[in-house]
Amino acid sequence: MALALEDRLAVTELIALHGHLVDEGELDRADEVFTPDVVYDLSDFGQGEVVGLTALTRAALTLGAANPVAHHVTNVVVEEVAEGRVRVRSKGLGIMADGSCGSVTYEDVVVRTADGWRIGRRRVVARRVPLNGLGQGS
C-alpha cells in the first residue's frame, strides 16, 4: 500500500520542525520530533551515536555556541519501507554565527507512534567534496 499523501506531508513537516525548534532553543520540545530512544548518529563528525532525548539535549547544550544559528532543510525524499515506517533523506544547511555554511545529508528512519510520526534514528553525513568524490582522481 502506498503511503498516503497526508502522511507524506506530516513526515515532511516533521523534518522541517527540527530546525525551527533547535534554532529557537526549544530543546524541551524534542519529543515532538524524536522518539524517546532516538539514535542520533554523529559518527561522521567523530562524535559517535547519541542515544535518547536527554543525551541529545545534553549534547546540544555542550556544543553551545558552536551550534549553527540556523538549520535549513531541503530536498526531502520519503520512501515507505514498511507499514508505519519510512526512510527519509534530506539535505541540511547549517549557517554558523560567523556566516560560514556547511552541508549535510540527513538519513532518517521515521516511525508512526501514538503521538504521530517521529524520527527514531538519524544519521548526519557531512558533505565535504563535490560529487561525493567522483572525478576527483584515485
From TrEMBL:
Top-rank taxon: Bacteria
InterPro entries according to UniProt: NTF2-like_dom_sf (IPR032710), SnoaL-like (IPR037401)
Start and end residues of each SnoaL-like domain: 4-123
Protein name in UniProt: Nuclear transport factor 2 family protein
Provenance organism: Streptomyces gilvifuscus
Organism taxonomic ancestry: Bacteria, Bacillati, Actinomycetota, Actinomycetes, Kitasatosporales
